[in-house]
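Backbone shape codes:
***
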Amino acid sequence: MTGINFAWSALGGDPALVARVGTVVREGALRARLPVRELARSCVGACALAAAELGARRGGLAEVPAVRVDDGAVAAAFHSERLLTVDGRAPVAFAPLSRFWRTADGWVRTHANYPHHRTRLLDALGLPEDASVEAVAERLAERPAREVEETVYRAGGLAIALRTPEEWAAHEQAAAVAARPLVERGRLGPARARVLPPARDSSSLLPAAGLRVLDLTRVLAGPVATRTLALLGAQVLRVDPPHLPELSDQHADTGFGKRSATLDLATDRQAFEELLAAADVVVTGYRPGALDRFGLSPEALAERQPGLVVAQVSAWGGYGPWSGRRGFDSLVQVATGIAAVEGSAGRPGALPAQALDHGTGYLLAAAVLRALTEQSYDGGGRVVRLALARTARWLTDEAAPEAGGDLPYDGPDAWLAETDSRLGRLRYARPPVSFAGGPADWARPPVPWGTDAARWA
């Protein structure tokens, strides 16, 4: 089964609709040993098709609009956090302590972009807060990679030992991931069929127009999904804990079309409940179970707001021995053997983009759109779940990358745009989700983190 067919099937879509998807294949886009270009194209294509399907349903169209997926647009979008500039300044992608390190018996990769993760990493290694890169390298070189992984994990930090595909396949978490579908889909109690008004403004078909999306996600897959729903007309309100600011560049990159508020779930419950009472969709991107103590499990949410669509994304999935662990795209690549496959000369490598994050993000948006379409026929609440590790399995199970293309890929410039914002002059990657009559860009630029009140517009 080809990539787009597999993704669309995992979303529960009508197989006949895949014929509505056309592609522009570009030689050199997202070049890698693994079929990254094909995975990226499939994820974006499935998302665009889900948007077109819902748009046709809401617009009363006799036929689902044609979808166009251009490898150039997809490649630019999958690099969006690297291509963003603010007043000409390039973004900061990784902090100094987020990198590969040699250990006594191999390699480990750490993630310390957030200050609290940096502190926990240094605490686990017995180093002071002002420790240098050289001091960390010296300490890690003395210890086995798996020992580092467990020590840092117990301290609440992030470090993953490099594994080959064979070593990952023998891991209990890999077995748990392999037993799950790419997209987990379920019902959340009874509710009447969702009645959606026509979804067209003066110029575009907006499949998600009028829908309220409560965005409780962190970098990067979840915010990519909600950024896509904002493109399609949804009112997206991102809500963060006031004590955990998002990284400014990544917030800007994924904040297009959204509003941004802060809210302490421990003390501002009434404000949250008021948001929930008017929400159509809730998207979460924290570790499985991390928000349950606030009454934010899918079941608890649906009990208070029948008919809700709840979408969840995590690194490792809500199952297996690693279900409670934190994770990021770069670490999932290291654990699942991707970094070993993409490495050379005895050193680990990486995919040409954060493809697990971006791909999973577009699939998550697609899953929400398909859930809304299904609800318009038979009602009921819905829950959808995705995991970066499951997307990684799909990537590593696929055939080798295709050779050639219809056109060359000459870089991202043709798919970049500029706009003024309260953050400054932004250069950014335009959205890759494209279908006949659909929107070409976001309706509003990003705002500074925490700008808005925690209420619906």
